[in-house]
Structure formats: C-alpha cells, structure tokens
Design a protein that fits this description.
Layout lengths: L1 E8 L2 E8 L9 E10 L2 H4 L12 E2 L3 E9 L11 E5 L7 E5 L4 E2 L6 H5 L2 H13 L8 E5 L4 H12 L3 E6 L2 H7 L6 E4 L6 H7 L5 E6 L6 H6 L1 E9 L13 H6 L3 E4 L7 H14 L1 H5 L7 E6 L3 H10 L5 E5 L4
Parallel strand pairs: 9-10, 9-12, 10-11, 12-13, 13-14, 15-16
Antiparallel strand pairs: 1-2, 1-4, 3-5, 3-7, 3-16, 5-6, 6-8
Helix pairs in contact: 3-4, 3-9
Length: about 325
C-alpha cells in the first residue's frame, strides 16, 4: 500500500511516499481503509514536539474510513462500518486504530468532514470541558483562533452557551469567524490584547483562555484572566517555550493553569477522552449544531502542498487530504 512518512531534520520536516506492507490489526485494533485524513500543526511543523529528529515515521495522526478487518477481541464494530479516530500513520491507504477510539461517523458527515474532527475536537473537549469546565454565560479567549483547534474551540464554546473572544493577525479571518459566532475579534499577533479583553468582559476578564500561540503571549493571557480563571496551554506556534510567571496574579486571582497534551497519556486515558468527546460534543456535530470548518481539501498526491499551506498559516480551520477512490 502507499503511505507517507515524515522526518524532522534541523528546522524542517520532510515527507516521503513509500510502498509498504498492509498492516495487520493486533488484539484490540481495527484495520481501516482510509478515505481522508486531517493535518495537524503539531506533527507537520518542526519544533512542535510530535516529530523528533531521527528516523522517519509513518505520517498522520487522525482520519476517517471504513473498517476492513477486526483484531482479536474487538466487539461492537463490524467490517464496513464508517469510523473516525486518532490513528498513527493516517496518511496511507490503510491504517490501524485502537478499537476503543474508533468512533462511528454520524450519517450527515462526509469523509472529509469526519477526518478533521477526532484529534482537534478531543483536544477541545479536554480544554473546554474536562479541565476547563466552561459553562454557559462565561467568556472564552482563544489566541490564534483561526487554527483548527481555535475554530473548534469557538464552535464548541458557542454550543455550550459561552461567549468568545479571539485574536488573529488577519482581519479577514476574524470577519469570517463572525458567522461561526465569534463575539469579539482582536486583530493582533502581539501580546497586547489584555485591555481589549477586560473591556469586552465588563472589566472582569476571561474565565477561560486557550493559548495556541505560546510563550510570547503567556503573561498577557494570565493578565487577561478573570478571578478564578483557567488557562489552557495547547500550542507554541511562536516557538517560545519560556515565559514570565506573575505569581501574585496566580495567587490573588486563584488561577488554574494547565497543559493539554496526549504525549504521556496511557492508551486507556486516551480512550477515556474519546468517550468524553462522544458523550459531550459528538451529539452537537451529529445534529448540525457544530459543522466542521474545512479550509481546503487536497488529493493524496498533494500532501506536500497541503503541508506547505499549513506552514504558511494561510488556512482557516482544518486542512484535509482525501485518499484515492473516495
């Protein structure tokens, strides 16, 4: 079968297309004929931690397709079922999924829609619901809101009844996100948004902040938090991994700071997050309250071009690759 492999060299990642054997599902796994797969900055962009320097590895971490074969002990799923989920090596004709994370695709979704959901919305579930405890009427601030995670955070927060402020360097992207419910857009790529957030929230600050940008805006995110506010750190597009910590604000405002990553989670912990997503967010996707925002769909042969678009930061929402014959 055809499969893309990714390697990190110096300050860039490179893709290589290979012919490799068809994988065989182990106990607890399903083999999926991939129909589409989503791109994720953490893997594609060098320095984001998911692709370490060294030998090449199968590329892709999420996708959608049809179950081709069940591993031993798998129940509740059948060959031919349409599923989406996290899976290593998703940029391939076939890939393996942990059966506990194989999610049946709602009938209204296309392959491309489904491929852009699993990793992004499970991360959002972790940030907004499992750890962030966002509720109706609260204010969410998302830095770098035009990213896949940023847009999904906006959509999920609106489904929860929250109000959303987003930052972006693009006025056009902020304007387009108003149709998805963005309440306040702040055009900036700098750490200068606290005053605007305080003003928009009636002097109180944001109840929850999603920091997609990194260390260069971390201190500003802390300043923008309300009393008992929560700060989720999920990305570092800026490459800045150190930041000022205002201990007095942390103490006086009783703040909660947390990270969002699957790097050190066990398989069961990842499966638990999938179950949380299915219970809390998937119903809104299934009935159309949340509609995945797909920036652009590329053919399988065009994965390098899709990677270049992500590296350019031109996209709004998810970039997806469609496999042949889908």
């Amino acid at each position: 079968m055809q499969s893309y492999w990714i390697q990190s060299v110096a300050d860039q990642t490179t893709l290589e297309r290979r012919e490799v054997p068809l994988p065989e599902p182990a106990a607890g796994q399903v083999l999926v004929r991939m129909r589409a797969a989503g791109l994720n900055r953490g893997e594609i962009i060098a320095g984001h931690g998911l692709t370490k320097p060294g030998a090449a590895k199968p590329a892709g971490v999420e996708g959608a397709g049809e179950i081709a074969k069940l591993g031993a002990g798998v129940t509740g799923l059948a060959p031919g079922a349409r599923v989406m989920g996290r899976c290593a090596g998703a940029f391939a004709e076939y890939a393996l999924m942990d059966a506990r994370e194989a999610i049946v695709i709602p009938a209204r979704l296309s392959w491309e829609d489904a491929a852009g959901i699993p990793l992004t919305f499970m991360v959002v579930h972790d940030m907004l619901i499992a750890q962030g405890h966002l509720v109706a009427g609260e204010w969410l601030l998302v830095t770098g809101i035009s990213s896949g995670v940023g847009v999904a955070s906006l959509q999920t927060a609106k489904a929860l009844g929250a109000k959303v402020i987003g930052t972006s360097g693009s006025a056009d992207k902020l304007e387009r996100l108003q149709a998805a419910g963005l309440d306040v857009g702040i055009r900036t790529r700098a750490a200068d948004f606290c005053d605007a957030v305080i003003a928009a929230t009636g002097g109180k600050g944001a109840n929850l902040v999603v920091n997609n940008v990194g260390g260069s805006v971390f201190a500003e995110c802390v300043r923008a938090l309300a009393f008992q506010g929560r700060l989720a750190t999920v990305g570092y597009v800026d490459g800045v991994l150190k930041a000022e910590m205002d201990i007095e604000a942390l103490h006086a405002k009783r703040l909660t700071l947390f990270g969002v990553s699957n790097k050190l989670r066990s398989a069961e912990q990842r499966a638990e997050s999938a179950r949380g997503f299915v219970a809390d967010i998937l119903p809104a996707i299934a009935d159309g309250r949340i509609r995945p925002m797909i920036d652009r769909v590329y053919a399988f042969d065009e994965l390098p071009a899709a990677k270049a678009r992500m590296e350019s930061n031109a996209h709004l929402g998810k970039i997806v690759v469609r496999m042949q014959d889908s």
